[in-house]
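Q: What does the assembled structure look like for these inputs?
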Amino acid sequence: MQQYSGFGLLKHSLSYHENWQRVWSNPTPKKHYDVVIIGGGGHGLATAYYLAKEHGITNIAVIEKGYLGGGNTARNTTIVRSNYLWDEASHLYEHSLKLWEGLAQELNYNLMFSQRGVLNLGHTLQDMRDIERRVNANRLNGIDGEVLTTAQVQEMVPILDCSKGARYPVMGASWQARAGTARHDAVAWGFARAADALGVDLLQQTEVTGIRRKDGAVEGVETNRGFISASKVACVAAGNSSVIAKMVGMELPLESHPLQAMVSEPLKPILDTVVMSNHVHGYVSQSDKGDLVIGAGIDGYTGYGQRGSFNVVEHTIAAIIEMFPIFSRVRLNRAWGGIVDTCPDACPIISKTHIKGLYFNCGWGTGGFKATPGAGHVFAHTIAHDEPHPLAKPFSIDRFTSGELIDEHGAAGVAH
Amino acid sequence: MLLIHCPYCEEMREEEEFSPAGQAHIERPLNPEELSDEQWARYLFFRKNPRGLHHEMWLHAAGCRKYFNMTRNTVTYQIMETYKMGLKPSVTASEEGQS
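A:
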Protein backbone atom coordinates (compact mmCIF):
# COMPACT_ATOMS: atom_id res chain seq x y z
CA MET A 1 0.00 0.00 0.00
CA GLN A 2 1.32 3.42 -0.92
CA GLN A 3 1.69 5.79 2.00
CA TYR A 4 -0.16 9.05 1.56
CA SER A 5 2.07 12.03 2.36
CA GLY A 6 2.80 15.58 1.33
CA PHE A 7 5.77 14.33 -0.64
CA GLY A 8 3.57 11.78 -2.43
CA LEU A 9 1.14 14.50 -3.39
CA LEU A 10 3.99 16.52 -4.86
CA LYS A 11 5.42 13.50 -6.68
CA HIS A 12 2.06 12.53 -8.21
CA SER A 13 1.41 16.10 -9.28
CA LEU A 14 4.29 15.68 -11.75
CA SER A 15 2.28 12.98 -13.56
CA TYR A 16 -0.97 14.93 -13.32
CA HIS A 17 -2.28 12.62 -10.55
CA GLU A 18 -2.89 9.86 -13.07
CA ASN A 19 -0.83 7.13 -11.43
CA TRP A 20 -2.28 6.83 -7.96
CA GLN A 21 -2.63 3.25 -6.77
CA ARG A 22 -6.16 1.83 -6.55
CA VAL A 23 -7.47 2.34 -3.03
CA TRP A 24 -8.64 -1.28 -2.74
CA SER A 25 -8.76 -4.27 -5.06
CA ASN A 26 -11.80 -6.03 -6.44
CA PRO A 27 -11.02 -9.73 -5.91
CA THR A 28 -13.03 -12.79 -6.95
CA PRO A 29 -14.32 -14.75 -3.95
CA LYS A 30 -12.15 -17.57 -2.64
CA LYS A 31 -13.73 -20.93 -1.77
CA HIS A 32 -13.08 -20.65 1.94
CA TYR A 33 -12.51 -17.88 4.47
CA ASP A 34 -11.78 -18.05 8.20
CA VAL A 35 -14.22 -15.24 8.81
CA VAL A 36 -16.95 -13.87 6.56
CA ILE A 37 -18.34 -10.50 7.56
CA ILE A 38 -21.78 -9.67 6.19
CA GLY A 39 -22.06 -5.94 5.67
CA GLY A 40 -19.46 -3.55 4.21
CA GLY A 41 -20.31 -0.49 6.23
CA GLY A 42 -18.09 1.26 8.76
CA HIS A 43 -18.56 -1.36 11.47
CA GLY A 44 -17.98 -4.33 9.15
CA LEU A 45 -14.83 -2.81 7.67
CA ALA A 46 -13.50 -1.82 11.11
CA THR A 47 -14.14 -5.37 12.33
CA ALA A 48 -12.19 -6.79 9.37
CA TYR A 49 -9.34 -4.34 9.93
CA TYR A 50 -8.95 -5.11 13.64
CA LEU A 51 -9.30 -8.87 13.06
CA ALA A 52 -6.41 -8.68 10.62
CA LYS A 53 -4.29 -6.23 12.59
CA GLU A 54 -4.80 -7.29 16.21
CA HIS A 55 -5.65 -10.96 15.91
CA GLY A 56 -3.63 -12.00 12.88
CA ILE A 57 -6.66 -13.42 11.03
CA THR A 58 -6.25 -12.21 7.46
CA ASN A 59 -8.25 -14.80 5.52
CA ILE A 60 -11.36 -12.63 5.75
CA ALA A 61 -14.06 -11.56 3.32
CA VAL A 62 -16.31 -8.57 3.80
CA ILE A 63 -19.49 -9.18 1.78
CA GLU A 64 -21.50 -6.15 0.73
CA LYS A 65 -24.63 -6.27 -1.40
CA GLY A 66 -24.21 -2.70 -2.59
CA TYR A 67 -20.96 -0.78 -2.46
CA LEU A 68 -18.61 -0.14 0.44
CA GLY A 69 -19.86 2.45 2.89
CA GLY A 70 -23.01 3.02 0.84
CA GLY A 71 -25.50 2.20 3.58
CA ASN A 72 -26.01 3.79 6.97
CA THR A 73 -22.37 4.90 7.21
CA ALA A 74 -23.04 7.37 4.41
CA ARG A 75 -26.37 8.40 5.91
CA ASN A 76 -25.56 9.79 9.34
CA THR A 77 -24.76 13.19 10.81
CA THR A 78 -21.04 12.50 11.46
CA ILE A 79 -21.12 13.29 15.19
CA VAL A 80 -18.65 11.55 17.51
CA ARG A 81 -19.04 11.75 21.32
CA SER A 82 -18.90 9.55 24.41
CA ASN A 83 -21.07 11.38 26.97
CA TYR A 84 -23.40 8.48 27.68
CA LEU A 85 -25.02 7.95 31.06
CA TRP A 86 -24.54 4.33 32.10
CA ASP A 87 -21.13 2.83 32.83
CA GLU A 88 -21.42 0.08 30.22
CA ALA A 89 -22.27 2.46 27.37
CA SER A 90 -19.84 5.15 28.55
CA HIS A 91 -16.92 2.71 28.58
CA LEU A 92 -17.76 1.42 25.12
CA TYR A 93 -18.14 4.86 23.49
CA GLU A 94 -15.08 6.22 25.33
CA HIS A 95 -13.06 3.25 24.08
CA SER A 96 -14.20 4.27 20.62
CA LEU A 97 -13.41 7.97 21.11
CA LYS A 98 -9.88 7.09 22.24
CA LEU A 99 -9.40 5.07 19.06
CA TRP A 100 -10.81 7.95 16.98
CA GLU A 101 -8.13 10.25 18.37
CA GLY A 102 -5.29 8.34 16.70
CA LEU A 103 -7.21 6.78 13.82
CA ALA A 104 -6.31 9.11 10.95
CA GLN A 105 -2.58 8.55 11.60
CA GLU A 106 -3.06 4.81 12.11
CA LEU A 107 -4.99 4.35 8.87
CA ASN A 108 -2.88 6.93 7.00
CA TYR A 109 -6.13 8.39 5.74
CA ASN A 110 -7.57 11.84 6.31
CA LEU A 111 -10.77 11.21 8.24
CA MET A 112 -11.30 14.95 8.75
CA PHE A 113 -11.68 14.15 12.44
CA SER A 114 -12.34 17.40 14.23
CA GLN A 115 -12.71 17.66 18.00
CA ARG A 116 -14.87 20.76 17.85
CA GLY A 117 -16.90 19.79 20.92
CA VAL A 118 -20.54 18.91 21.46
CA LEU A 119 -23.13 20.94 23.35
CA ASN A 120 -26.26 19.21 24.65
CA LEU A 121 -28.74 21.95 25.47
CA GLY A 122 -31.15 21.92 28.40
CA HIS A 123 -34.46 23.72 28.08
CA THR A 124 -36.23 22.70 31.30
CA LEU A 125 -35.27 22.23 34.94
CA GLN A 126 -35.54 18.47 34.45
CA ASP A 127 -33.21 18.71 31.44
CA MET A 128 -30.67 20.52 33.61
CA ARG A 129 -30.93 17.89 36.37
CA ASP A 130 -30.39 15.16 33.78
CA ILE A 131 -27.44 17.05 32.31
CA GLU A 132 -25.81 17.47 35.73
CA ARG A 133 -26.33 13.80 36.47
CA ARG A 134 -24.89 12.75 33.15
CA VAL A 135 -21.85 15.04 33.36
CA ASN A 136 -21.12 13.76 36.89
CA ALA A 137 -21.47 10.17 35.67
CA ASN A 138 -19.11 10.92 32.77
CA ARG A 139 -16.49 12.47 35.04
CA LEU A 140 -16.63 9.53 37.44
CA ASN A 141 -15.86 7.38 34.39
CA GLY A 142 -12.90 9.56 33.45
CA ILE A 143 -14.71 11.17 30.51
CA ASP A 144 -14.45 14.92 30.05
CA GLY A 145 -17.62 16.92 30.58
CA GLU A 146 -18.78 20.25 31.91
CA VAL A 147 -22.07 21.88 32.78
CA LEU A 148 -22.35 25.32 31.17
CA THR A 149 -24.60 28.21 32.10
CA THR A 150 -26.75 30.06 29.58
CA ALA A 151 -24.18 32.88 29.44
CA GLN A 152 -21.35 30.45 28.69
CA VAL A 153 -23.42 28.78 25.96
CA GLN A 154 -24.23 32.17 24.42
CA GLU A 155 -20.56 33.13 24.42
CA MET A 156 -19.63 29.87 22.74
CA VAL A 157 -22.38 30.00 20.11
CA PRO A 158 -23.34 33.65 19.51
CA ILE A 159 -25.89 32.78 16.82
CA LEU A 160 -27.94 30.60 19.19
CA ASP A 161 -31.09 32.26 20.51
CA CYS A 162 -30.52 32.21 24.28
CA SER A 163 -33.07 34.91 25.06
CA LYS A 164 -35.68 34.42 27.76
CA GLY A 165 -38.36 35.05 25.19
CA ALA A 166 -37.60 31.89 23.25
CA ARG A 167 -40.35 29.31 23.27
CA TYR A 168 -38.00 26.83 24.96
CA PRO A 169 -35.37 29.06 26.62
CA VAL A 170 -31.83 27.65 26.84
CA MET A 171 -31.15 27.06 30.53
CA GLY A 172 -27.67 25.62 30.11
CA ALA A 173 -25.89 22.75 28.45
CA SER A 174 -23.49 19.88 28.86
CA TRP A 175 -20.21 20.29 27.02
CA GLN A 176 -17.83 17.57 25.87
CA ALA A 177 -14.78 19.24 24.37
CA ARG A 178 -13.18 16.05 23.01
CA ALA A 179 -16.28 15.20 21.04
CA GLY A 180 -16.70 16.40 17.47
CA THR A 181 -17.22 15.19 13.96
CA ALA A 182 -15.52 12.95 11.38
CA ARG A 183 -16.03 12.59 7.66
CA HIS A 184 -18.30 9.52 7.49
CA ASP A 185 -17.37 8.33 3.97
CA ALA A 186 -13.67 8.71 4.71
CA VAL A 187 -14.03 6.46 7.76
CA ALA A 188 -15.40 3.65 5.60
CA TRP A 189 -12.82 4.26 2.87
CA GLY A 190 -9.94 4.50 5.34
CA PHE A 191 -10.84 1.21 7.03
CA ALA A 192 -11.47 -0.45 3.65
CA ARG A 193 -8.06 0.60 2.32
CA ALA A 194 -6.25 -0.47 5.48
CA ALA A 195 -8.10 -3.81 5.62
CA ASP A 196 -7.39 -4.45 1.93
CA ALA A 197 -3.69 -3.77 2.55
CA LEU A 198 -3.73 -6.44 5.28
CA GLY A 199 -5.13 -9.00 2.84
CA VAL A 200 -8.86 -8.77 3.50
CA ASP A 201 -11.07 -9.50 0.46
CA LEU A 202 -13.68 -6.80 -0.04
CA LEU A 203 -16.49 -8.33 -2.11
CA GLN A 204 -18.91 -5.72 -3.40
CA GLN A 205 -22.18 -6.34 -5.24
CA THR A 206 -22.36 -9.66 -3.46
CA GLU A 207 -25.57 -10.44 -1.68
CA VAL A 208 -25.98 -13.06 1.01
CA THR A 209 -29.09 -15.13 0.35
CA GLY A 210 -28.69 -17.79 2.99
CA ILE A 211 -26.50 -19.13 5.78
CA ARG A 212 -25.62 -22.82 5.62
CA ARG A 213 -25.38 -24.73 8.88
CA LYS A 214 -24.35 -28.21 9.95
CA ASP A 215 -24.78 -29.71 13.44
CA GLY A 216 -25.53 -26.35 15.05
CA ALA A 217 -22.48 -24.61 13.57
CA VAL A 218 -22.15 -22.33 10.56
CA GLU A 219 -20.63 -23.73 7.38
CA GLY A 220 -20.71 -20.68 5.19
CA VAL A 221 -22.94 -18.32 3.26
CA GLU A 222 -24.93 -18.67 0.07
CA THR A 223 -24.48 -15.64 -2.16
CA ASN A 224 -25.44 -14.53 -5.62
CA ARG A 225 -21.85 -15.42 -6.56
CA GLY A 226 -22.10 -18.95 -5.22
CA PHE A 227 -21.46 -20.66 -1.91
CA ILE A 228 -18.62 -19.31 0.22
CA SER A 229 -17.44 -21.57 3.00
CA ALA A 230 -16.52 -19.95 6.32
CA SER A 231 -15.57 -21.08 9.81
CA LYS A 232 -17.13 -17.99 11.35
CA VAL A 233 -19.82 -15.62 10.09
CA ALA A 234 -20.20 -12.17 11.59
CA CYS A 235 -23.29 -10.17 10.75
CA VAL A 236 -22.99 -6.37 10.74
CA ALA A 237 -25.97 -5.54 8.54
CA ALA A 238 -27.50 -2.63 10.51
CA GLY A 239 -31.12 -2.23 9.41
CA ASN A 240 -31.17 -5.61 7.69
CA SER A 241 -30.00 -7.65 10.70
CA SER A 242 -33.48 -9.10 11.28
CA VAL A 243 -33.52 -10.30 7.68
CA ILE A 244 -30.18 -12.10 8.12
CA ALA A 245 -31.27 -13.55 11.48
CA LYS A 246 -34.36 -14.96 9.84
CA MET A 247 -32.12 -16.99 7.49
CA VAL A 248 -31.11 -19.10 10.48
CA GLY A 249 -34.55 -19.01 12.11
CA MET A 250 -33.38 -16.59 14.78
CA GLU A 251 -35.33 -13.65 16.07
CA LEU A 252 -33.71 -10.49 17.37
CA PRO A 253 -35.33 -7.91 19.66
CA LEU A 254 -35.06 -5.27 16.93
CA GLU A 255 -37.35 -2.98 15.03
CA SER A 256 -36.11 -1.17 11.93
CA HIS A 257 -37.06 2.46 11.42
CA PRO A 258 -36.09 5.12 8.88
CA LEU A 259 -33.92 7.87 10.42
CA GLN A 260 -33.64 11.10 8.48
CA ALA A 261 -30.97 13.72 8.09
CA MET A 262 -30.48 16.67 5.77
CA VAL A 263 -27.91 19.21 4.64
CA SER A 264 -28.29 22.84 3.63
CA GLU A 265 -26.56 24.80 0.91
CA PRO A 266 -22.95 25.65 1.87
CA LEU A 267 -22.49 28.73 4.05
CA LYS A 268 -19.47 30.66 5.25
CA PRO A 269 -18.18 29.39 8.63
CA ILE A 270 -20.77 30.32 11.23
CA LEU A 271 -21.01 27.41 13.66
CA ASP A 272 -17.80 25.87 15.02
CA THR A 273 -19.24 23.26 17.35
CA VAL A 274 -22.01 20.64 17.41
CA VAL A 275 -25.29 21.73 18.99
CA MET A 276 -27.75 19.06 20.08
CA SER A 277 -31.05 19.44 21.83
CA ASN A 278 -33.01 16.43 23.02
CA HIS A 279 -35.89 18.51 24.26
CA VAL A 280 -36.90 20.32 21.09
CA HIS A 281 -35.18 17.55 19.18
CA GLY A 282 -32.80 18.83 16.61
CA TYR A 283 -29.06 18.64 16.19
CA VAL A 284 -26.87 20.63 13.88
CA SER A 285 -23.23 21.11 12.96
CA GLN A 286 -21.45 22.77 10.08
CA SER A 287 -19.29 20.60 7.86
CA ASP A 288 -15.87 21.68 6.65
CA LYS A 289 -17.45 22.29 3.26
CA GLY A 290 -19.85 24.76 4.89
CA ASP A 291 -23.19 22.99 4.73
CA LEU A 292 -25.30 22.66 7.85
CA VAL A 293 -25.75 19.00 8.73
CA ILE A 294 -29.08 18.56 10.48
CA GLY A 295 -30.34 15.41 12.13
CA ALA A 296 -34.00 14.57 12.46
CA GLY A 297 -35.85 11.84 14.29
CA ILE A 298 -36.94 8.35 13.38
CA ASP A 299 -40.36 7.50 12.07
CA GLY A 300 -42.48 6.02 14.84
CA TYR A 301 -43.42 3.04 12.71
CA THR A 302 -41.19 0.36 11.25
CA GLY A 303 -40.10 0.66 7.64
CA TYR A 304 -37.43 -0.40 5.19
CA GLY A 305 -37.95 2.35 2.59
CA GLN A 306 -34.86 4.57 2.76
CA ARG A 307 -36.88 7.71 3.24
CA GLY A 308 -38.98 9.09 6.06
CA SER A 309 -42.12 11.09 6.71
CA PHE A 310 -42.40 14.76 5.80
CA ASN A 311 -43.80 15.66 9.20
CA VAL A 312 -40.54 14.50 10.85
CA VAL A 313 -38.57 16.90 8.64
CA GLU A 314 -41.01 19.69 9.41
CA HIS A 315 -40.75 19.07 13.15
CA THR A 316 -36.94 19.13 13.03
CA ILE A 317 -36.74 22.28 10.95
CA ALA A 318 -39.12 24.00 13.37
CA ALA A 319 -36.81 23.09 16.24
CA ILE A 320 -33.66 24.25 14.41
CA ILE A 321 -35.22 27.58 13.43
CA GLU A 322 -36.44 28.05 17.00
CA MET A 323 -32.86 27.66 18.25
CA PHE A 324 -31.20 29.47 15.34
CA PRO A 325 -33.55 32.10 13.90
CA ILE A 326 -30.62 33.18 11.69
CA PHE A 327 -31.02 29.97 9.65
CA SER A 328 -34.61 30.70 8.69
CA ARG A 329 -33.81 31.60 5.08
CA VAL A 330 -31.19 28.93 4.47
CA ARG A 331 -32.20 26.52 1.74
CA LEU A 332 -31.91 22.78 2.19
CA ASN A 333 -29.91 20.93 -0.39
CA ARG A 334 -31.08 17.39 0.20
CA ALA A 335 -32.57 15.06 2.78
CA TRP A 336 -32.16 11.32 3.11
CA GLY A 337 -33.09 8.40 5.30
CA GLY A 338 -31.13 5.45 6.63
CA ILE A 339 -32.60 2.34 8.20
CA VAL A 340 -31.67 1.94 11.84
CA ASP A 341 -32.34 -1.17 13.89
CA THR A 342 -33.44 -0.12 17.35
CA CYS A 343 -33.32 -2.20 20.52
CA PRO A 344 -35.91 -1.88 23.30
CA ASP A 345 -33.25 -0.39 25.63
CA ALA A 346 -31.57 1.90 23.05
CA CYS A 347 -28.30 -0.02 23.32
CA PRO A 348 -26.62 -2.22 20.72
CA ILE A 349 -26.18 -5.98 20.60
CA ILE A 350 -22.59 -7.22 20.25
CA SER A 351 -22.88 -10.89 20.82
CA LYS A 352 -22.24 -14.54 20.15
CA THR A 353 -25.33 -16.56 19.35
CA HIS A 354 -26.54 -20.06 20.18
CA ILE A 355 -25.27 -21.09 16.72
CA LYS A 356 -21.56 -21.88 16.85
CA GLY A 357 -19.52 -19.45 14.80
CA LEU A 358 -22.32 -16.94 14.24
CA TYR A 359 -21.96 -13.45 15.69
CA PHE A 360 -24.10 -10.33 15.60
CA ASN A 361 -23.24 -6.67 15.88
CA CYS A 362 -26.52 -4.80 15.49
CA GLY A 363 -29.19 -2.71 17.16
CA TRP A 364 -27.18 0.53 17.21
CA GLY A 365 -30.28 2.55 16.56
CA THR A 366 -29.28 6.13 16.06
CA GLY A 367 -25.81 5.89 17.61
CA GLY A 368 -23.67 3.61 15.49
CA PHE A 369 -21.36 6.02 13.68
CA LYS A 370 -19.53 7.35 16.73
CA ALA A 371 -18.84 3.78 17.82
CA THR A 372 -17.33 2.63 14.51
CA PRO A 373 -13.71 1.97 15.61
CA GLY A 374 -14.63 0.87 19.14
CA ALA A 375 -17.36 -1.50 18.01
CA GLY A 376 -15.12 -2.97 15.32
CA HIS A 377 -12.36 -3.43 17.89
CA VAL A 378 -14.44 -5.24 20.53
CA PHE A 379 -16.39 -7.22 17.94
CA ALA A 380 -13.15 -8.44 16.34
CA HIS A 381 -11.98 -9.61 19.77
CA THR A 382 -15.31 -11.38 20.35
CA ILE A 383 -15.02 -13.19 17.01
CA ALA A 384 -11.33 -14.08 17.31
CA HIS A 385 -11.56 -15.51 20.85
CA ASP A 386 -15.16 -16.76 20.62
CA GLU A 387 -15.56 -14.95 23.95
CA PRO A 388 -17.00 -11.48 24.44
CA HIS A 389 -14.54 -8.63 24.90
CA PRO A 390 -14.99 -7.29 28.47
CA LEU A 391 -16.46 -4.06 27.07
CA ALA A 392 -18.86 -6.01 24.82
CA LYS A 393 -20.02 -8.44 27.49
CA PRO A 394 -22.88 -6.27 28.87
CA PHE A 395 -24.19 -5.93 25.30
CA SER A 396 -24.83 -9.65 24.89
CA ILE A 397 -28.18 -10.72 23.51
CA ASP A 398 -28.78 -12.57 26.80
CA ARG A 399 -29.58 -9.31 28.54
CA PHE A 400 -33.14 -9.43 27.28
CA THR A 401 -33.77 -12.67 29.16
CA SER A 402 -31.63 -11.88 32.21
CA GLY A 403 -33.22 -8.44 32.51
CA GLU A 404 -29.85 -6.65 32.73
CA LEU A 405 -30.91 -3.94 30.30
CA ILE A 406 -28.91 -0.75 29.81
CA ASP A 407 -31.57 1.91 29.56
CA GLU A 408 -29.76 4.53 27.47
CA HIS A 409 -32.78 6.40 26.06
CA GLY A 410 -31.78 9.64 27.76
CA ALA A 411 -28.27 9.90 26.34
CA ALA A 412 -28.98 8.32 22.97
CA GLY A 413 -30.06 11.68 21.58
CA VAL A 414 -32.98 10.54 19.49
CA ALA A 415 -36.09 9.11 21.09
CA HIS A 416 -36.53 5.47 20.14
CA MET B 1 -47.21 11.23 4.29
CA LEU B 2 -49.50 8.28 4.88
CA LEU B 3 -53.24 8.65 4.42
CA ILE B 4 -54.89 6.43 6.97
CA HIS B 5 -58.46 5.24 7.14
CA CYS B 6 -59.68 5.14 10.72
CA PRO B 7 -62.14 2.23 10.99
CA TYR B 8 -64.00 3.94 13.83
CA CYS B 9 -64.31 7.43 12.31
CA GLU B 10 -64.62 5.85 8.86
CA GLU B 11 -62.63 8.67 7.32
CA MET B 12 -59.28 9.03 5.55
CA ARG B 13 -57.05 11.30 7.64
CA GLU B 14 -53.39 12.38 7.51
CA GLU B 15 -50.62 10.48 9.27
CA GLU B 16 -50.01 13.31 11.73
CA GLU B 17 -53.31 12.63 13.49
CA PHE B 18 -52.12 9.15 14.42
CA SER B 19 -49.45 7.59 16.58
CA PRO B 20 -48.01 4.19 15.79
CA ALA B 21 -48.13 1.77 18.71
CA GLY B 22 -46.06 -1.18 17.53
CA GLN B 23 -46.86 -4.72 16.55
CA ALA B 24 -50.49 -5.83 16.71
CA HIS B 25 -52.03 -9.02 18.08
CA ILE B 26 -49.63 -9.47 21.00
CA GLU B 27 -51.48 -11.33 23.71
CA ARG B 28 -50.58 -10.78 27.30
CA PRO B 29 -49.86 -14.18 28.86
CA LEU B 30 -52.67 -15.38 31.13
CA ASN B 31 -50.27 -17.33 33.36
CA PRO B 32 -47.33 -14.95 33.89
CA GLU B 33 -45.99 -16.74 36.97
CA GLU B 34 -45.59 -19.97 35.01
CA LEU B 35 -43.55 -18.44 32.19
CA SER B 36 -39.83 -19.04 31.85
CA ASP B 37 -37.49 -16.06 31.48
CA GLU B 38 -37.21 -16.80 27.75
CA GLN B 39 -40.97 -16.79 27.26
CA TRP B 40 -41.33 -13.60 29.28
CA ALA B 41 -38.55 -11.90 27.28
CA ARG B 42 -40.25 -12.98 24.08
CA TYR B 43 -43.51 -11.37 25.18
CA LEU B 44 -41.83 -8.14 26.34
CA PHE B 45 -39.07 -7.45 23.85
CA PHE B 46 -39.15 -9.61 20.73
CA ARG B 47 -41.14 -8.12 17.90
CA LYS B 48 -41.69 -9.12 14.32
CA ASN B 49 -39.67 -6.89 12.06
CA PRO B 50 -40.68 -8.11 8.61
CA ARG B 51 -39.51 -6.77 5.31
CA GLY B 52 -42.99 -6.86 3.79
CA LEU B 53 -46.44 -7.23 5.31
CA HIS B 54 -46.76 -6.19 8.93
CA HIS B 55 -49.76 -6.05 11.27
CA GLU B 56 -49.46 -3.11 13.60
CA MET B 57 -51.45 -1.11 16.09
CA TRP B 58 -52.19 2.60 15.66
CA LEU B 59 -53.90 5.19 17.83
CA HIS B 60 -56.09 7.87 16.30
CA ALA B 61 -54.57 10.32 18.78
CA ALA B 62 -56.00 13.56 17.39
CA GLY B 63 -59.31 12.00 16.39
CA CYS B 64 -61.50 9.44 18.16
CA ARG B 65 -58.55 8.38 20.38
CA LYS B 66 -59.24 4.73 19.73
CA TYR B 67 -56.70 2.03 18.91
CA PHE B 68 -57.12 0.06 15.72
CA ASN B 69 -55.05 -2.33 13.64
CA MET B 70 -53.42 -1.89 10.26
CA THR B 71 -51.84 -4.20 7.70
CA ARG B 72 -49.03 -2.33 5.98
CA ASN B 73 -46.14 -3.19 3.70
CA THR B 74 -42.94 -1.98 5.38
CA VAL B 75 -41.06 -1.69 2.07
CA THR B 76 -43.60 0.05 -0.16
CA TYR B 77 -45.53 1.65 2.75
CA GLN B 78 -48.78 0.60 1.08
CA ILE B 79 -51.60 0.27 3.60
CA MET B 80 -53.55 -2.87 2.73
CA GLU B 81 -56.32 -2.46 5.30
CA THR B 82 -57.24 -1.04 8.67
CA TYR B 83 -59.57 -2.92 10.98
CA LYS B 84 -61.10 -2.62 14.41
CA MET B 85 -59.53 -4.08 17.52
CA GLY B 86 -60.56 -7.66 18.14
CA LEU B 87 -60.95 -8.44 14.46
CA LYS B 88 -58.60 -10.56 12.38
CA PRO B 89 -56.72 -9.19 9.36
CA SER B 90 -58.09 -10.21 5.97
CA VAL B 91 -54.71 -9.76 4.25
CA THR B 92 -52.01 -11.91 5.77
CA ALA B 93 -48.38 -12.44 4.92
CA SER B 94 -48.74 -16.06 3.83
CA GLU B 95 -51.29 -15.13 1.20
CA GLU B 96 -48.81 -12.69 -0.28
CA GLY B 97 -46.19 -15.40 -0.48
CA GLN B 98 -44.07 -13.86 2.27
CA SER B 99 -43.24 -15.16 5.68
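Residues 4 and 93 of chain B are 20 Å apart (CA to CA).
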